[in-house]
Design a protein that fits this description.
The chain has 322 residues and is mostly helical. Among the domains are: 84 residues, Alpha Horseshoe (Serine Threonine Protein Phosphatase 5, Tetratricopeptide repeat), CATH 1.25.40.10; 101 residues, Alpha Horseshoe (Serine Threonine Protein Phosphatase 5, Tetratricopeptide repeat), CATH 1.25.40. It is built from 17 helices and no strands. It is globular, with a radius of gyration of 28 Å.
């Protein structure tokens, strides 16, 4: 008896095609979802301060989805936070290759160039950002920050005010504008901007610290102390606030408290040359020349261009004949 040939029904063919469709569709979703999971883990680890793990997460997301500009952008932010500036620039550039109109990638790459003192490249990126979005407050603010770092505070203020016309409730821009005015010794105006920043964000420790320094320069020492104390209450690891409060303690001749604050600042930031120099000045006043010399040398090692400890050290060597 001849074996009957099996007839393949159209129903089975349809089922097979449908099955293949579902396999392709769901495998793509699983692929995308896995990349998304790594991305979200990277964001969580970044905000948790686990920067190395965040880099691993974003790198995994990129491997699974090489066209995800957000993963490149966020990994660039992490690299910039860690001080790996070349890697940060490479990632912002990759993000821009995928999304050439991404304003934030231009802003952050420009800011990173500025940290490398490549100011022409920084300005070019900010210009691109404003060409894409003429109302982008961050780009105007970034111009202001670069001009401020160049010591062109009047120009910085013009750009900060342009940014504030667009975003008048930015505590960061208000604070930075205050810094520019303070750098011009216009402390009354600086305080007005710091007050506005604090009104926008009552927990903004930088604004309290900066206002405290402005009060210090105005000889309003009690107000300065209150602001330094509150800045430190808001941020227990605020090295600059400890340093500034140490200066106020020094002025008030509370040398033990001053040394404690400078030491705390150094413990938080071991590369804080100003804190070493300031502690050295207190030690010198206490005639503890060995400790003063060690601190001045530490400051010089961190920043060989820092003139204060060089002068102080030469002064010590002259008077104490080391």
């Amino acid at each position: 008896m001849k074996k009957m040939k099996k007839k393949v029904s159209y129903l089975n063919i349809r089922f097979l095609l449908l099955f293949i469709f579902f396999i392709v569709f769901f495998s793509k979703n699983i692929y995308t979802q896995t990349a998304s999971n790594y991305y979200n883990l990277g964001v969580s680890n970044y905000y948790a301060g686990k920067l190395d793990q965040a880099i691993i997460n974003f790198t995994s997301a990129i491997k699974l989805n090489p066209n995800d500009k957000d993963s490149y952008y966020n990994r660039g932010l992490v690299y910039a936070t860690k001080g790996n500036l070349n890697l940060a620039i490479a990632d912002f550039t990759s993000a821009l290759k995928i999304a050439p109109q991404d304003v934030e990638s231009y802003n952050n790459r420009g800011s990173t160039y500025a940290r490398q003192e490549k100011y022409d490249l920084a300005f070019t990126d900010f210009k691109h950002a404003l060409k894409i979005d003429p109302k982008n407050a961050d780009a105007f603010s970034n111009y202001g920050s670069v001009y401020g770092s160049l010591g062109k505070y009047d120009t910085a203020i013009i750009y900060y005010n342009s940014a504030l016309k667009i975003n008048p409730k930015s505590a960061l821009i208000l604070n930075n504008c205050g810094i520019a005015y303070a750098s011009l010794d216009k402390f009354d105006t600086a305080v007005i901007y710091y007050n506005s920043a604090i009104m926008v964000d009552p927990k903004y420790s930088d604004a309290y610290n900066n206002r405290g320094f402005a009060y210090y320069k105005q000889a309003k020492y009690d107000l300065a102390m209150n602001d330094y104390n509150y800045a430190i209450d808001l941020n227990q690891n605020y090295a600059e606030a400890y340093n500034n409060r140490g200066l106020l303690y020094t002025y008030r001749n509370n040398t033990d408290l001053a040394i404690a604050d400078f030491t705390r600042a150094i413990k938080i930031n071991s590369k804080y040359a100003k804190a070493f120099c300031n502690r050295g000045i207190v030690y010198e006043g206490q005639r503890k020349s060995d400790l003063a010399t060690a601190d001045y040398n530490a400051a010089i090692k961190i920043n060989p261009k820092f003139s204060d400890p060089l002068y102080k050290l030469s002064h010590l060597m002259y008077y104490f004949k080391f």
